[in-house]
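Per-record layout

source: Tepiditoga spiralis
name: 8-amino-7-ketopelargonate synthase
length: 394
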Amino acid sequence: MNFYENLKNEMEELKEKGLLVTVKTLETAQGAWLNIEGKKVLNMCSNNYLNFCNREELKKEAIKAVEKWGVGPGAVRSIAGTLTIHNELEKELAEFKGVEATLVVQSGFNANQAVIPAIVKKGDAILSDELNHASIIDGVRLSKATKYVWKHKDAKDLELKLKEAKENGANTMLVITDGVFSMDGDLAPLPELVEVCEKHGALLMVDDAHGEGVLGKNGRGIVDHYGLHGRVDIEVGTLSKAFGLVGGFIAGKKVLIDYLKQKARPFLFSSSLSPAEAGAGIAAVKLLKDSGEPVEKLWDNGNYFKGKMKELGFDIGQSETPITPVMLYEAKVAKEFSKKLFEEGIFATSIGFPTVPKGKARIRVMISASHTKEDLDFAIEKFEKIGKELNIIK
Ligand code: PMP
C-alpha cells in the first residue's frame, strides 16, 4: 500500500466513525444569515460574537489603513515590518486591558507559540489544565520545560502538581489555563488559581481568546471580570473572535513584552499583521471602549437561548458564557443532528474528537449579538423539532 492510499484509508475510517471534518464554504460575508450551498441559513457557529467581522467602522479603518500603508507589512517585525499602526494597536490594547504593554502577532494560535517556549526552558515547569486549547498544548510541546497536567479547573490538583514540580527542583513554574473553555463555555476558577500561584511563587498565564470582547467591562476579558488586575502575569488574546479580525496578542508587564521581542519566534520569524488588520483592530478597541452595548446584547441573547434550550430538556453542559454546547455524546448523532439542522435552515457544525474528548460530541452553538430574538426563536423551534425526531428530548 502506498503513502497516498494510506491517507485515503485513514480518511475513510474517520468518515465511518462520523469524525471526518467537513468544510462548508460561506458564499456571503459573516453575519447572522449566510448563503451556503446556495441556501439561506441562520449562522449559529461562528466566533463573530459582536458582529464586528462586517461592521462599517472597522471596514472603513481597514480600507484607510490599506490606502496609507498598503496591503502587506513587507517583513517580520524585527527587520522592517513594524509600522506605526502596529505600535498604535499595541498601545490601544494595553490601555484597554489595563496592562503595561502588549505585543501583537499573527493569530491567537501563534501567540501561544510565541510566549510559552520563550519564557520557560529546561529546568523549569509548565502546569497546564487538562482541557487547555490545542494551541497551548502545542506551545507547551515546543518548550523543554517539564510538563505537568492538572485536572480541569481543579485548583487543589494544581497545588499538588506545583508541590511535585518544586520537589523535582523546578526553577520557574508557569501555570497555564484557558480563560473561557471554548468547547464548553465554562470559566477558569481564576481567583483560586491566582491564590495558589501566589502561594507557590508560580507565574500565571491565561489564554482569554473567548473572553476578549465577551467578559468584563465592555469586554475587557476574564481578568477584569474577576477584578484581578495586576495578579495575572500573562494574558494571551485573540483578535479573531469578538474583535472580528485575524490576529493575536500577549499582554503583561513591559519587561516581559520587551523580552518577547528578543525571543519569541513567531515575532522574529513570521511577518507581522497586515495594515488592514492593524487599522481595523484599533477601530475595534475604540468601539468597545465607547460602548458596552454589543457585549450586553451578546449576553442577553446567550441567556435567552440557553434558558429556552434548558426548558426543552437539552443537556447544555455547564456553560457560563454565551457559548452553548448541545451535548449529543456520539459523533454520529452529532453529525446527523447538524445535517438535519442544515436542511431546516440552520448552520451549526458538529464537533467531535480530537476537538473534544471521545464520546463527548456535540453541536456547539455560538450565539452572537447579530442574532435577533426572532432568529433565536427560529433556531429553538428547529432544535426542538430535530431533538424530538432523534429522541434526544421528549
Ligand atoms: N486559544 C483559544 C483558547 C482558542 O479558542 C483559540 C481559537 N480556537 C485560539 C487560541 C486561536 O486563536 P486564533 O484563531 O486567533 O488563532
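summary: The radius of gyration is 21 Å. The chain has a mean pLDDT of 97.
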